[in-house]
Known about the structure:
Elements: E1 3-7, H1 12-23, E2 27-32, H2 39-51, E3 56-60, H3 66-80, E4 85-90, H4 108-131, E5 140-146, H5 157-177, E6 183-189, H6 195-198, H7 203-213, H8 222-232, E7 244-247
Parallel strand pairs: 1-2, 1-4, 2-3, 4-5, 5-6, 6-7
Helix pairs in contact: 1-2, 1-8, 3-4, 4-5
This protein binds nicotinamide-adenine-dinucleotide (NAD).
Amino acid sequence: MATVLILGVSSGFGAAAARAFARAGYDVAGVHLDRRGTQPQVDAVRADIEAAGRQAWFFNQNAADDEGRARIVAELRERCGEGGVAALLHSLAFGSLAPFVGERAATRKQLEMTLDVMGSSLVYWAQDLVAAGLLGQGGRIWAMTSSGSHMVWPGYGPVSAAKAVLEAACRQLAVELAPRGITTNAILAGVTDTPALRKIPGADELVKKALARNPGGRLTTPEDVADALVLLAQPGARWINGNVLRIDGGEDIAG
Ligand SMILES: NC(=O)c1ccc[n+]([C@@H]2O[C@H](COP(=O)([O-])OP(=O)(O)OC[C@H]3O[C@@H](n4cnc5c(N)ncnc54)[C@H](O)[C@@H]3O)[C@@H](O)[C@H]2O)c1
C-alpha cells in the first residue's frame, strides 16, 4: 500500500491532507513538532487515519534536524520498501515573524532558522527520499507557499524569504527529478484560518482582505487544499510539473 509522507502532519493543511489521503486509501507517515498541550490534536489525526483503516506512523521531531531525518528515512525504508512513498508534502510553519528593520528586527539566527525549516529542508528530504529509493517513478513532491511570497505583509519578511527559497527549490527539483518520473510543484494556498495564520501580526486584517478579495466569497480551508492534493496524486496528473499551483478559489489573482 502506498504511503504519503507529510511534514507538518499535526495541524492545518498537513492534518487535513493526512485525513484526506487516509480516506483515499493511503497510509500516512507524518512528522510534527508538538508539546503536551497540542498532543490531543496529534492523537485526533492519528485516530482518524486509523478509523479510515489505514496506518499512521508519526514522529514528533524537528523536520530540519539531519540525524532525525536520517532515522525517519531509514525507518520508512524498512516499512515501505522500494518506491513505497507515493508523495512528500512539505507543510511546515515554524518561522520568525518579525520586521527586517527596527527594535524587534529579525536577527541572523532567526532569519537563517526560518529559511532552513520553511525553505531548504525540502531539499534535504527530497535528496534522502530519492537516495533511499523511497520516492521514484510516479512520485509527487508538494510544498506549501503563499501569496506572501510575492507580496509584503508586516512582519512576514523572514517567511516570505523562505517561500522564495522553497519555490526555487521546487523549480530545481522539478527539472532534476523529472527524468526519474517524479513531479514537484509548489502549492499556493489562499489565506486559511490555522494556528500559523493566527501568529502573523495583523492576521485579522489579512482575513478581512482575503474575504473581500476572494471571488468564492470565503476563506480557503485546509480541506480545499487536501482534496486537491488527492487529485494531484492521481496518475493523470503525471505531467503537471514545476508549477506554483494556486489552490485559493482565485484569491491571488483577484483585484
Ligand atoms: N494558513 C495560511 O493561511 C497559509 C496559506 C498559504 C500557505 N501556508 C503555508 O502552509 C504551511 C503549513 O501552514 P499551516 O497553516 O497548516 O500551519 P499549522 O501551524 O496549522 O501547522 C504547522 C505544522 O508544522 C509542524 N511543524 C512546525 N515546525 C516544525 C518542525 N520544525 N519540525 C516538524 N514539524 C514542524 C507543526 O507541528 C504542525 O503540524 C506553512 O508553510 C505555511 O506558510 C499557510
